[in-house]
Amino acid sequence: MDSFVIVTKSGKRDVYEEILPQIESLIRDETDLVANLANTASVLRMAFPDRISWVGFYLARANELVLGPFQGKPACVRVQLGRGVCGTAALSRKTVIVPNVDEFPGHIVCDPDSRSEIVIPMLRGENLLAVLDVDSSSLGSFDETDKEYLEKIGKLLEKKF
Predict the structure, then answer these.
(1) DSSP code of 101?
(2) SS3 content of the chain, % helix, strand, coil (to 5)
(3) What is d(CA 29, CA 98) in angstroms, rounded to the nearest whole number?
(4) 40-43 contact pairs (CB < 8 A, 24+)
(5) 77-105 residue pLDDT tens
């Protein structure tokens, strides 16, 4: 696949439908995990430049999450399981959507401009592999459509671990 993203649609669901096969194509034959995570983060950021302010992965390492490939401002490097939005999603093994991060108990401020967030845990069985973390500088940016498609993207990537 060419190393650029083609987005011709404007509706959220339509954009996801357009980028999902592009992500599949980018990662299909690539065996390097870092390359696959980096390209996926890039596609998501490029597809939603006005909505996504930060997107990246935290990799499960022992009892914490460690920063992996991302697009955006420098980020917190380590997150304890159960702390913040990423740690909560990792511990619960469930997607967490936060419309206003200031109202999330224990929110970890890595980027003071972040206003809303969605975190998708990536699993093999019950074994935590990583989380996909997506932030927005706008309140209420993420919903069930984001959950549906980001979980699909997470499932594609789980196979590459």
Answers:
(1) G
(2) 35, 25, 40
(3) 34
(4) 40/153, 40/157, 41/69, 41/70, 41/71, 42/5, 42/71, 43/5, 43/19
(5) 999 999 999 999 999 999 999 999 999 98
For the chain, what's the residue count? 161
Full-prediction pTM beyond 0.85? yes
Task: Specify whether the CB–CB gap between 75 and 43 falls below 8 A.
Answer: no
Burial of 126 (0-12, 13-18, 19+ CB in 10 A): exposed
Residue at token pair 């509706």: 11
Domains of the chain, CATH where assigned: 12-158 (3.30.450.40)
**Which token pair is 94?**
């469930």
Taking alpha carbons only, the member of 95, 91, 101, 102 closest to residue 143 is 95
- 126: tokens are 């019950």
Helix 33-47 × helix 144-158 angle, to 10°: 160
| Local structure of 89: helix, strand or coil | helix
